[in-house]
Automatic annotation (TrEMBL), chain A:
Localisation: Cell membrane
Signal peptide (from-to): none
Protein name per its UniProtKB record: Cation acetate symporter
Pfam families, per database record: SSF
Keywords: Cell membrane, Membrane, Symport, Transmembrane, Transmembrane helix, Transport
Keyword Protein transport listed: no
Family recorded in the similarity comment: Belongs to the sodium:solute symporter (SSF) (TC 2.A.21) family.
Native source organism of the sequence: Streptomyces hydrogenans
InterPro entries registered for this protein in UniProt: Na/Glc_symporter_sf, Na/solute_symporter, Sodium:Solute_Symporter
Superkingdom: Bacteria
Main location per the UniProt record: membrane
Segments traversing the membrane: 6-28, 53-75, 81-101, 122-140, 160-178, 190-210, 248-270, 282-307, 341-364, 385-408, 414-435, 447-468
Matches recorded under CDD domains: SLC5sbd_u4 (cd11480)
From TrEMBL, chain B:
Residue spans of biased composition, Basic and acidic residues class: 1-16
Region (Disordered) location: 1-28
Parts of the chain that traverse the membrane: 59-81, 93-115
Pfam families, sorted: DUF485
Protein name: DUF485 domain-containing protein
Length: 531, 143
């Protein structure tokens, strides 16, 4: 499938992207002071449209671009369930989180909670869970980068994969530590535009091939999938026994509730001046993300109809190459100039996507380390380093850790790792955030309990799940620690996070601080005193 | 490192100066300066604020419950009743396809409705409250 021409052109396009983004990084970081406002929030003066594109860029990962279309090409309708969950999640962000978080916080999730609680324990708890979520998500993207290289550039050898992971990690550390939020935001915007343009072009080509007739696209896809009309209904992938079905409901819950707890998404709201601008950026991003996922559905069914499910599966068992194969076919087939160009464009866009997402998460997690953990844990009499300096070092350390873990976990499924990050975010970050914003009686103990009460079960249930041990395709197939039957812990750990927060609050010896609750509520809804 | 420290302190000073907005201050023991606390409590009790909060909650809470139930119903139906979802509607399009696209459509509609509601019914009142509250906290001699 991959010829020398593809490789050369894809590498050229990708190098151009790296050059442009490095240019952006040096350009925006000239004459900038190393203030925290600048480093974490990019000066807070992005427009809603710019931030909307950047949010979309932060959110649409290669896992969605290649993974969801691939799942649809293989399993038909069941792949669509992912796109719906990823989009509906934004309503939670829009209605309950975006504006209020913009008004109450400065840089991180912990800011919002700490405003009405005892600062130190809350910051340590929320900082820890934010770093945990970010690292999980980061590892997923690094693994994705590694397998993408192996798939698209034909570098099946371990060496190519290893060097890609190291290269992606090194680049993102450079972006983040030199350019901070301003450079990261512009990289997201460039990436979102490239990704949308590539997806629109492919979608239009698919629709032209079927003369705009969706019905014939669907029936051809059903026919060539080998499953007939069952391809267009649910059940091919998640139909099995009740464990598999419950597992899917668990994943669905994690997807819809996790987005509002992702640290790199929350930190994006601080880059605009007001809550109104934060709301308008979410409206922009819902439009972009919704359009994107609608198009991935067309691409998935298009790949099934034009390539055939069996051929997609033969190229890559989990369907990740469906879109590149489709591009090759739409451009005129293997060996044609059009096919080569389209294929290279898709490969380059996928790389750009991973690089941008990785930069966004690294920035958010370095902010959690410096602004929450370091600021709470440093000794008052010790040597004082500036927060930005700590954040830069943290970005490098997190980058190194993600490279290491990404190499170790290179055999894990990317979509699964992403689902896991969402489950931890929904269990540990969302309950404490919603309670802080909406519950008058919420106390410090409740906040700390709700973070750990969601984080610990989520991580523990994963360790005891069939993913880690006790099944043939587990991480450690040799040992058997498996107690929990589901792959995704969401359905258990998310309610536990909410329950722990409630329990901690009602058993608190201290009364809730009425005055600081009043302050949080007034600031959240009016924007008074917002930075 | 020392140089960065300088810059950061300068940046921190800029925060307040640039926006003219006081950040809540806490004294050494972590208690807040008296004055601002009463002001926020007073604003919270004021009818104007209660109205803004009521308008926000009366839209956001029912809408959240509604879309979460609709989404959960969709996921549960897809996993528990694939037969029903596979029933054809028109041509190759079946119930599952309509429900999935329906999720997209309701998400777009609710986004539009919420943005419109906030713009027309909440933004102006919230902005007035913001200036009033900030006037009062400044008057309290915080900064």
């Amino acid at each position: 499938m991959v010829t020398g021409d593809h490789q050369t052109l894809a590498l050229l396009l990708f190098s151009a992207f790296v050059a442009v983004t490095l240019g952006i990084t040096t350009w925006v970081s000239r004459n900038r002071h190393g203030s925290t406002e600048e480093f974490y929030a990019g000066g807070r003066l992005f427009s809603p449209m710019e931030n909307g594109f950047a949010i979309a860029g932060d959110y649409m990962s290669a896992a969605s671009f290649l993974g969801i279309s691939g799942l649809i090409a293989l399993y038909g309708y069941d792949g669509m369930l992912y796109s719906v969950g990823f989009l509906v999640a934004w309503l939670v962000v829009l209605l309950l989180v975006a504006e209020l978080v913009r008004n109450c916080g400065r840089f991180t999730l912990a800011d919002v909670v700490a405003a009405r609680m005892a600062e130190r324990p809350v910051r340590i708890a929320a900082g820890t869970s934010s770093v945990a979520v970010s690292v999980l998500y980061l590892v997923a993207q690094m693994v994705g980068a590694g397998s993408l290289v192996a798939l698209l550039l034909g570098g099946t050898g371990e060496a190519a994969r290893t060097w890609t992971v190291i290269g992606v990690g090194a680049l993102m550390v450079i972006y983040v530590s030199l350019g901070g939020m301003r450079a990261t935001t512009w990289i997201q915007i460039v990436k979102a535009v490239l990704l949308m343009a590539g997806t629109v072009a492919l979608t239009v080509l698919v629709l032209i091939r079927f003369h705009g007739d969706i019905d014939s696209l669907l029936s051809t896809a059903a026919e060539r999938s080998g499953h007939g009309t069952a391809f267009l209904g649910p059940g091919l992938r998640y139909g099995g026994d009740w464990t598999a079905r419950l597992d899917f409901i668990s994943l669905g819950l994690a997807l819809v509730l996790g987005t509002a707890g992702l640290p790199h998404i929350l930190s994006r709201f601080y880059t605009v001046p007001t809550a109104r601008a934060a709301r308008r950026s979410v409206v922009w991003s819902i439009g972009l993300i919704g359009g994107f996922y609608l198009m991935t559905i067309v691409l998935g069914f298009g790949a099934a109809a034009l390539i055939g499910s069996d051929e997609v599966r033969a190229s890559n068992a989990s369907g990740n190459t469906a879109v590149p194969l489709l591009a090759l076919d739409l451009g005129g087939g293997a060996g044609s100039t059009g096919g080569t160009v389209l294929f290279a464009v898709v490969a380059a866009v996928a790389f750009a996507t991973i690089l941008a997402v990785v930069a966004g998460i690294t920035l958010a997690s370095s902010a959690s380390v410096a602004h929450d953990l370091y600021a709470s844990l440093r000794r008052p009499d010790g040597r004082q380093y500036s927060e930005v300096a700590v954040a830069r070092v943290a970005a490098a350390v997190i980058g190194a850790a993600a490279i290491g873990l990404g190499l170790l976990a290179s055999d894990l499924n990317v979509a699964f790792l992403v689902g896991l990050a969402f489950a931890v975010a929904a269990s540990a970050n969302l309950p404490v955030l919603l309670y802080s914003l909406f519950w008058r009686r919420f106390t410090t103990r409740g906040a700390v309990w709700s973070v750990y009460g969601g984080l610990v079960p989520a991580v523990l249930l994963v360790l005891l799940s069939p993913v880690v041990s006790g099944s043939p395709d587990a991480l450690f197939p040799g040992v058997d620690l498996q107690v929990f039957p589901l792959q995704n812990p969401g359905v258990v750990s998310i309610p536990l996070g909410f329950l722990a927060g409630w329990l901690g609050t009602v058993t608190s010896p201290e009364p809730p601080d009425e005055a600081r609750h009043a302050e949080t509520e007034v600031r959240a809804l009016t924007g008074a005193g917002a930075v | 490192m020392e140089q960065l420290d300088e810059q950061e302190r300068a940046g921190a000073r800029d925060d307040g100066a640039a926006t003219g907005v006081p950040r809540p201050r806490y004294d050494e023991a972590g208690h807040r300066t008296p004055g601002a606390a009463e002001i926020y409590l007073e604003v919270q009790r004021s009818p104007a604020f209660q109205e803004v909060r009521r308008r926000y909650r009366r839209f956001a809470f029912p809408a959240t419950v509604a879309f979460l139930l609709w989404y959960l119903a969709y996921v549960v139906a897809a996993t528990a009743a694939p037969g029903l979802m596979a029933r054809p509607v028109a041509g190759a399009v079946n119930v599952a396809m309509v429900a999935g696209l329906g999720q997209f459509l309701t998400t777009f509609l609710l986004t539009w409705a919420y943005a419109r509601h906030a713009r027309l019914r909440r933004d102006r009142a919230a902005l007035e409250l913001r200036w009033d509250t900030q006037e009062m906290t400044r008057g309290a001699g915080q900064w």
